[in-house]
Amino acid sequence: MQATTLKVTGMTCNHCVMSVTKALKQVPGVQSAEVSLEKAQAVVKGSADAQALVKAVEDEGYQAALQA
Ligand SMILES: [Cu+2]
Q: For the whole prediction, is pTM greater than 0.90?
């Protein structure tokens, strides 16, 4: 399974983590999303389009960038 790592900035608390997690899980093709406040990143597994993941985070009010 493909894993995509996103750098997510703008999260300040666990509520933010929950919001980002929920947004990512709603993207078609996502099997799991693990969001870390400490690392400011999200690891998403599944077949979702990477740009759709970035957009989902941004629509939620945070900033996201693809990480190699
Ligand atoms: Cu918060």
A: yes
